[in-house]
Design goal:
The chain is α/β, with parallel strands linked by helices. It folds into 3 domains: 4-12 and 141-246, HAD superfamily/HAD-like (Rossmann fold); 18-138, Calcium-transporting ATPase, cytoplasmic domain N (3-Layer(aba) Sandwich), CATH 3.40.1110.10; 252-312. It has 12 helices and 12 strands.
Length: 317
């Protein structure tokens, strides 16, 4: 029986519809230029964060965004390309530091840390070998997520928040909805490893996700639950699709599956008990053929009727 439920953050616990909250330019840099170049780069990406930055850049720009040459996407890390002759990169600070040997100025790092502590996501922007600023994007937690976590806990499940987002933002979201265990800053390819590690600890793991990056983890989990509002890849990889984008439906699905299992066990018990009691009577000629036929028909009616009780399943119970 499932005892641990791993939840993707973006699009599962949160709405997944991000918006640009703030632009933090380095001292001496133009705020509009930071947004313009980053927006041009993100416009070539399909990531939810890009879907927040690019429209904001278009709205702030007086003309169309410049084109991008040599666009490249590092899954879970960031994007890069050449914009107006500048080698622009946007993504995690750790990726920029490790890959491009840049440093984040203290004034931007401090404001970014404050934003992350409030549950927001920060994308750092650099070009020509120096960090020029950061973009703060925010996502809203679904109104029903906290209730869903409470319901999952009432079913004896341990919720785990799994995300590629930074640790501070992830823990801020987790604290708001009531999740204690957080695994953050996980690359898409490593989500499967997290699920398998939990399984190696003896846990029976269910995974709830909605994105392309969740597909492999959904397939690896003992039970994969895809949000119906998610991508086709995630839906295809899962064992069960939740039609609505409401996290509470995951608790409903588990309740229904447990009720179904109890019904199956009940049907098997009564079927075996019935036959164990009736077969000796039939062998001893204590039952007439008419009574035996009626008894067998009643057995089938009982099993079907017991199963039909599931049609009255109430998700709230």
């Amino acid at each position: 029986m499932v005892d641990t439920i791993v939840l993707d953050k973006t699009g599962t616990v949160t709405s997944g519809r991000m918006s640009l909250h703030d632009v933090l330019p380095v001292d001496g840099e133009d705020r509009g230029q930071v947004l313009r170049l980053a927006g041009a780069l993100e416009d070539a990406s399909e990531h939810p964060i890009a879907a927040a930055i690019a429209p904001a850049a278009k709205a702030a720009s007086e003309g169309p965004l410049p084109s991008v040459e040599g666009f490249a996407n590092e899954a879970g890390k960031g994007v890069s390309g050449v914009v107006e002759g500048h080698a622009v990169v946007a993504g995690r600070s750790s990726w920029l530091v490790e890959e491009y040997s840049v440093t984040v100025p203290a004034n931007v790092a401090d404001r970014a840390a404050t934003a992350e502590g409030e549950g927001r996501t920060v994308v750092y922007v650099a070009w020509d070998g120096a960090v020029r600023g950061a973009l703060v994007v925010s996502d809203t937690i679904k109104p029903t997520s906290a209730q869903a976590i409470t319901e999952l806990r009432s079913l004896g499940l341990t919720p785990v928040l799994l995300t590629g987002d930074n640790e501070r933002a992830a823990r801020a979201v987790a604290a708001e909805v009531g999740i204690d265990e957080v695994i953050a800053e996980v690359l898409p390819a490593d989500k499967v490893s997290v699920v398998r590690r939990l399984q190696s600890e003896g846990r029976v793991v269910a995974m709830v996700g909605d994105g392309v990056n969740d597909a492999a983890a959904l397939a690896a989990a003992d039970l994969g639950l895809a949000m119906g509002t998610g991508t086709d890849v995630a839906i295809e990889a899962s064992d069960l699709t939740l039609v609505r984008g409401d996290l509470r439906t995951s608790a409903d699905a588990i309740r229904l599956s447990r009720s179904t299992l109890r019904t199956i066990k009940g049907n098997l018990f009564w079927a075996f008990a019935y036959n164990v009691a009736a077969i000796p009577l039939a062998m001893s000629w204590s039952l007439s053929p008419v009574v035996a036929s009626a008894a067998m028909a009643f057995s089938s009616v009982f099993v079907v009727s017991n199963s039909l009780r599931l049609r009255r399943f109430d998700p709230g119970t």
